[in-house]
């Protein structure tokens, strides 16, 4: 037993030596992951987009139309940056990308309101962008409805109706919207909490494949196996352990950024957070190991890992909900640890639900650890016989 | 003077003659490398299809919600039926308690809760204002949006009907009542992506990004492989004949440009047509935008390729940029809210402007003139990265030249022995 641990320590020490021999290692395990964490926490630090540029086409030029324009300007989301002469001009500005939306206040707006002719106000917004389009639509619809109700109220006041009565008439049904659990968290915060693990899994996957693949490519695998007493378990444990520790620490730094710096509410204990993070790192190391065992030639296993890692963004279901996808993709999504990690995060950490709602996700993460067992013999023979090396004719 | 003029002429004619050779050699390199072939052909062919199928349903429809009906009246039942009738929402459980609804939410059976107050029916009868509460799931923007769109639509419409009914009871005609209730009429015009389909948001950006990323990684992989194959790890072969910098850059670029111009027809022409994404852009407009985009991506790739010492370096060190670049393009988070530093970083990569330009042209029907900012920036990037590519390759050419000069001083036997002994 003692020699077992000594062996592992020796292999781990050999790996740390290898890591310090090339700049690529330092970049992949430290510099690039930390840079991406800083990038995303800086890019999405604001809660909601503010002051998005919109234009007004005021064809009426009266006190009423100017009042409406001002009301649009003072909403926190939009800012009137341009007053334009015609719809054509505004449409061109929208296509150029200078504004996200515009409102057309028609001729005779004021007169039509007074004479109860129900004038028509059109608004246009760029819906080619998911968040900007959705927010723009909500904002413009809301502000114009409020203005319309305001006119209704003014007229009723002129008729001498009581304030309470007016409100009950103008808006018989009021809608109050609440966010279920964690009303303080903003949408960008949600994006960051999912995007950061997705970025990290790319680094873990590629690094795991590389650290093993390079031994085959550069024909050092026998030496490595020899140091491990010819045991593949010792060899792999010793090799991957340093990365487990480093990536776990990166993940904890990431958590620190999320829950301390960005102040995303955390409703679970530090222990569970650490356990979830550790299982996340291990699950992805297991998948990286599977890739390189399946295709021991590193050029192919790296391609496989990259293909799988990039798909996580789409199939983890944070952009587009899994439940709305075709059935085949729903099952496929289960094959991504980040999907289960996301579930744990949403249920246990963010909403503070009891463990029993997320325990299944922990079990799924455990299952990923068994995946490498299917290729371990194949990998060992590749390490011994080095039969997956391409012949290079140097010139 | 005359002599140097003649020299330049000889160089140019020499260069033109060796250009086809360099182009063919680059094609040979690409087509004999399975890994690069997969990257250049399989990825651009398969990914757009795969993404289109994953996002096939496009929108969130019939999101399951629970209604906590405390009123138990015909009014509240009608209200629930109206919510159920919206395309966004589907009431899978009504007449449950709030506790039951929350439990269902925790088990992910439902994605939102609507609460109707006990006094709902009597409030309406007594002409008092009543309040409906909607509890939305903030985890997914699309769920939040579906909940908000569905409930606010029903609340507004029902409220409007009640108001009109009250007004008509007080003696107004139907038309008068309607105008009093709604003094202004609105027309909501969603531009670019009318149906709000998710694939139409994401796929145009993904298409552009795939072009840039596969190009840069493929160029990097080939450069790393070349270095591994050369005995002294040089990027430029130690040929007897000097390879001009300009013809090297031009030759390699021509090979990549040919391949990607053809791929673009499939990715930006056929895929949008098959899957029904916006396709308002004309052929000439797209050519005006995509030409500088492919060129600047190639030159950026050639510039970056000198840092990739090994075959796998490009995949390891560059792949991760794909996700940050998607955010930097401004399709997810509006660029009007970017800080200056990220706006500057955004302009380093051709994809940012190309994605913006492509969405504008293809979904909004912007003309070349309206896309001038993006097209101009892409040409500036093309020029800049062409210079950097020439500088870096010029350095590599000189280095090989220098090395060859050094080697020629030593007898062939000695050189061979040193190579064999691995020094």
| Count of DSSP strands of chain A | 5
Helicity level of chain B: 55-70%
Side by side, the strands of the main sheet of chain A go 2-1-3-4
The greatest interface between two protein chains, and residues involved on each side, is:
A-B, 114 and 115 residues
Quickly count the helices of chain B: 16
Assembly of the depicted chains:
heterodimer
Kindly report how far apart the N and C termini of chain B lie.
45 Å
- Rg of Cα set of chain B: 32 Å
C-alpha geometry of chain A: elongated
Supply the number of helical segments of chain A.
16
Low-confidence stretches of chain B: none
Unreliable residue runs of chain A = none
**Rg of chain A, please?**
29 Å
User: How many structural domains are formed by the residues of chain B?
Assistant: 2
Sheet with the most strands: spatial strand order of chain B: 2-1-3-4
Order of helices and strands of chain A: HHEHEHEHEHHEHHHHHHHHH
Describe the structure.
The complex is a heterodimer of chains A (395) and B (423). Chain A has 16 helices and five strands. With 395 residues, chain A is of the alpha/beta class. In chain A, strand 1, helix 3 (63-73) and strand 2 (78-84) form a beta-alpha-beta unit. Chain B has 423 residues and is of the alpha/beta class. Chain B folds into two domains: 2-55 and 197-420, no CATH class; 63-181, abc type-2 transporter like fold (3-Layer(aba) Sandwich). Chain B has a four-stranded mixed sheet with strand order 2-1-3-4, with helices on both faces. In chain B, strand 1 (63-69), helix 3 (74-85) and strand 2 (89-93) form a beta-alpha-beta unit. Classes of the chains: A alpha/beta (395), B alpha/beta (423). Chains A and B meet through helix 2, helix 4, strand 4, helix 6 and helix 7 of A and helix 2, strand 4, helix 6, helix 7 and strand 5 of B.
């Amino acid at each position: 037993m003692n020699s077992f641990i000594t062996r592992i320590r020796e292999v781990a020490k050999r790996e740390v030596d290898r890591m310090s021999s090339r700049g690529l290692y330092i970049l992949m395990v430290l510099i690039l992951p930390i840079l991406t964490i800083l990038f995303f926490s800086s890019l999405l630090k604001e809660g909601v987009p503010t002051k998005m540029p919109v234009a007004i086409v005021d064809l009426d030029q009266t006190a009423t139309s100017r009042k409406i324009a001002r009301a649009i300007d003072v909403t926190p989301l939009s800012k009137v940056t341009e007053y334009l002469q015609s719809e054509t001009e505004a449409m061109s500005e929208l296509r150029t990308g200078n504004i996200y939306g515009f409102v057309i206040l028609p001729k005779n707006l004021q007169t039509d309101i007074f004479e109860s002719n129900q004038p028509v106000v059109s608004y246009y917004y760029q819906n080619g962008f998911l968040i900007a389009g959705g927010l723009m639509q909500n904002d413009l619809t809301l502000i114009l409805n409020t203005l319309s109700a305001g006119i209704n109220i003014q007229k009723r006041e002129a008729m001498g109706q009581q304030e309470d009565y007016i409100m009950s008439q103008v808006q018989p049904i009021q809608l109050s919207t609440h966010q279920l659990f964690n009303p303080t968290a903003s949408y960008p915060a949600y994006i960051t909490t999912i995007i950061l693990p997705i970025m990290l899994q790319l680094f873990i996957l590629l690094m795991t494949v590389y650290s093993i693949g390079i031994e085959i490519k550069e024909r050092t695998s026998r030496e490595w196996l020899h140091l491990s007493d010819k045991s593949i378990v010792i060899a792999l444990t010793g090799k991957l352990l340093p990365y487990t520790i480093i990536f776990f620490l990166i993940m904890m730094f990431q958590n620190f950024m999320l829950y301390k710096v960005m102040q995303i509410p955390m409703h679970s204990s530090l222990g569970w957070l650490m356990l979830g993070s550790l299982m996340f790192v291990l699950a992805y190391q297991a998948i990286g190991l599977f890739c390189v065992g399946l295709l021991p030639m590193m050029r192919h296993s790296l391609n496989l890992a990259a293909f799988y890692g990039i798909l996580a963004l789409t199939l983890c279901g944070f952009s587009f909900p899994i439940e709305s996808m075709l059935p085949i993709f729903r099952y496929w999504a289960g094959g991504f640890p980040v999907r289960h990690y996301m579930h744990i995060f949403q249920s246990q950490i963010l909403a503070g639900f009891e463990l029993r709602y997320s325990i299944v996700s922990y079990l799924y993460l455990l299952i990923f650890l068994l995946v490498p067992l299917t290729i371990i013999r194949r990998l060992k023979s590749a390490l011994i016989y080095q039969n997956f090396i391409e012949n290079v004719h140097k010139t | 003077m005359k002599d140097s003029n003649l020299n330049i002429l000889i160089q140019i004619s020499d260069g033109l003659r060796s250009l086809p050779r360099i182009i063919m050699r680059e094609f040979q390199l690409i087509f004999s490398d399975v890994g690069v072939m997969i990257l250049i052909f399989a990825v651009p062919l398969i990914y757009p299809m795969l993404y289109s199928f994953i996002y096939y349903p496009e929108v969130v429809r019939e999101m399951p919600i629970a209604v906590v009906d405390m009123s138990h009246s015909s009014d509240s039942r009608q209200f629930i039926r109206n919510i159920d009738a919206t395309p966004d929402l589907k009431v899978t459980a009504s007449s449950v308690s709030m506790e039951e609804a929350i439990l269902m939410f925790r088990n992910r059976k439902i994605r939102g809760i609507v609460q109707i107050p006990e006094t709902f029916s009597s409030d309406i009868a007594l002409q008092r204002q009543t309040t409906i509460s909607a509890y939305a799931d903030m985890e997914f923007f699309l769920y939040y949006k579906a909940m908000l769109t569905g409930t606010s639509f029903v609340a507004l419409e029902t409220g409007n009907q009640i108001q009109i009914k009250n007004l008509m009871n007080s003696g107004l005609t139907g038309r008068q009542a309607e105008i009093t209730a709604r003094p202004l009429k609105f027309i909501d015009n969603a531009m670019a992506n009318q149906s709000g389909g998710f694939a139409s948001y994401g796929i145009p950006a993904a298409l552009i990004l795939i072009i840039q990323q596969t190009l840069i990684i493929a160029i990097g992989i080939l450069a790393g492989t070349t270095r591994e194959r050369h005995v002294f790890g040089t990027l430029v072969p130690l040929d007897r004949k000097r390879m001009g910098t300009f013809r090297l850059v031009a030759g390699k670029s021509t090979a990549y440009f040919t391949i990607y111009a053809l791929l673009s027809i499939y990715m930006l022409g056929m895929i949008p047509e098959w899957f029904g994404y916006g396709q308002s852009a004309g052929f000439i407009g797209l050519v005006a935008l995509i030409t500088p985009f492919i060129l600047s991506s190639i030159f950026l790739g050639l510039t970056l390729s000198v840092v990739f010492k090994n075959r796998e370096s490009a995949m390891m060190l560059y792949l991760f940029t794909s996700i940050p670049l998607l955010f930097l393009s401004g399709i997810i988070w509006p660029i009007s809210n970017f800080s200056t530093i990220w706006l500057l970083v955004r302009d380093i990569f051709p994809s940012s402007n190309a994605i913006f330009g492509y969405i504008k042209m293809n979904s909004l029907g912007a003309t070349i003139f309206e896309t001038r900012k993006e097209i101009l920036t892409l040409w500036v990037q093309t020029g800049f990265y062409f210079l950097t590519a020439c500088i870096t390759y010029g350095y590599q050419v000189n280095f090989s030249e220098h090395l060859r000069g050094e080697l020629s001083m030593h007898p062939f036997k000695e050189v061979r022995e040193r190579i064999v002994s691995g020094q």
